[in-house]
Write a structure and sequence with these properties.
alpha/beta; single chain; 2 domains; Aspartate Aminotransferase, domain 1; seven-stranded mixed β-sheet; binds pyridoxal-5'-phosphate
């Protein structure tokens, strides 16, 4: 009988990791209060709970004017619209991210140009950004991926030099800090998701942090059907329209949940940060595992998923096989996203945004060479579930024990790999 759970052996972790989202009577009371108030939706914008959420969230991140809305995809589209970026403009995005980072510019009518990531952090490579800048480029969307942060000093220096707008995609980075500054407060905009898997959640939801009050007023207009919003808050003139918009307003029920989430967040974030440091230490002794580099300027880590890399030859199996086996051991994990230039969606003929031959170097995806993102997505990356980091040192110990167990049985696993890939769909 095999030692491995995926081949019929006993699981390393039999107890479930803690569930997400976390809730208690406070959430029930907050939603009940919102229901009883009769103000359920988001009109007129912002409702009292949404206004409170905006204030508390910018306090939590340490700056910016917060505009809550329906999700963390629309946040980026709204930022582009508020900054006047649209048809024919180019926005640089990293190859390693969720599809929303590239589809948001497309929704605003702009063209996403995909560049490679830094292998040390898996975040956007500032050198690749610089090479991709042309007179058509209007914005950069760095993504703070998993538990990492993009090099914001380099990105902001490039933005200043080339007069570009920076929208930090902080869907994974609530509470994270770079040189003591909160994620989302360094760029012109910071985009946050409050979708149910995120570490601050209202089920669905998003918050856009804006550096300027003018951008925040425009963003509020875009999400409120184009109604003018005064700089500094409040509706200006309900009859006039100032900018093309739609109904992307956050509801009071969602804001009520997010406000309770903010109360819980500091203790959860502290626990994740401590356990991530313990995971770094524990994984560094496993052969063939590479702990991603923590930049010393990344002063507070707060994360969505913990990512590490393997060298498949040294570790013994490919990352998809490791992930399938780890999952079976009771340790939630995932291989991560596909490289962005491999998504059908972003092929120029699909988006219809790419003017034929206008940007051949960026839109002939077959000629696109993004080796670091490709290596991460196809061979190296392993994303560990956040819940592992809320189960104390034992939670981390069990995950590391399972990884070591899989490595011990690598030969057996490789013999079964073809069948496993069929079973797990790769
Ligand atoms: C990196 C990144 N950006 C943006 C989003 C979009 O957020 P939402 O699902 O709230 O639209 C996500 C969601 O998973 C994400 O992971």
């Amino acid at each position: 009988m095999s030692e491995l759970a995926i081949l019929g052996g006993a699981k390393t972790r039999t107890e479930s990791y803690p569930a997400w989202p976390v809730w208690d009577q406070r959430d029930i009371d907050a939603v009940t209060e919102a229901i009883k108030s009769g103000r359920w939706g988001g009109f007129p914008y912002p409702g009292p709970k949404t206004a409170e959420l905006a204030e508390k969230f910018s306090e939590m991140q340490g700056g910016g004017f917060a505009v809550p809305m329906i999700n963390g995809t629309v946040t980026m589209e709204v930022a582009l619209r508020a900054a006047g970026i649209g048809w024919g403009d180019v926005v640089i995005v990293p190859a390693y991210t969720f599809q929303a980072t590239a589809s948001a510019p497309m929704s605003a009518g702009a063209i996403p140009v995909i560049v490679d990531v830094d292998p040390n952090t898996y975040c956007i490579d500032p050198g690749a950004v610089e090479k991709a800048i042309t007179p058509k480029t209007k914005a950069i969307i760095p993504v703070h991926l998993g538990h990492q942060m993009a090099d914001m000093d380099a990105i902001m220096a490039l933005a200043e030099k080339h007069n570009l707008i920076v929208i930090e995609d902080c869907a994974h980075a609530h509470g994270a800090k770079w040189n003591g500054s909160g994620a989302g407060t360094m760029g012109h905009f910071g985009s946050f998701s409050l979708q149910s898997s995120k570490t601050l959640t209202s089920g669905e939801g998003g918050i856009l942090l804006c550096k300027s009050a003018e951008h925040a007023a425009l963003a509020a207009s875009v999400i409120d059907c184009g109604r003018p919003h005064a700089v500094g808050g409040g509706e200006e003139d309900a009859n006039g329209l100032s900018i093309q918009g739609g109904n992307y307003r956050m509801s009071e029920l969602q804001s009520a949940l997010a406000l309770i989430g903010i109360e819980r967040f500091p203790a959860q974030a502290k626990q994740r940060e401590e356990m991530a440091a313990y995971m770094d230490e524990s994984l560094s002794e496993v052969q063939g595992v590479r702990v991603l580099k923590r930049d010393p300027r990344h002063t507070t880590r707060s994360f969505y998923r913990y990512i590490f890399a393997i060298n498949p030859e040294e570790f013994g199996v490919e990352h998809d096989v490791l992930c399938a086996a780890l999952d079976a051991e009771g340790v939630g994990c995932w291989v991560g996203y596909e490289a962005m230039h491999n998504y059908e969606l972003f092929q120029p003929q699909k988006s219809k945004l790419a003017v034929p031959n206008a940007f051949p170097e960026y839109f002939d995806f077959k000629k696109m060479n993004l080796p670091e993102a490709t290596r991460a997505c196809e061979h190296e990356a392993v994303w560990l579930d956040e819940s592992i980091f809320r189960a104390g040192r034992q939670g981390v110990d069990d995950a590391v024990a399972a990884i070591k167990k899989i490595q011990r049985s690598a030969d057996e696993l490789n013999r079964a790999a073809e069948d496993l890939r069929k079973r797990y769909g790769k």
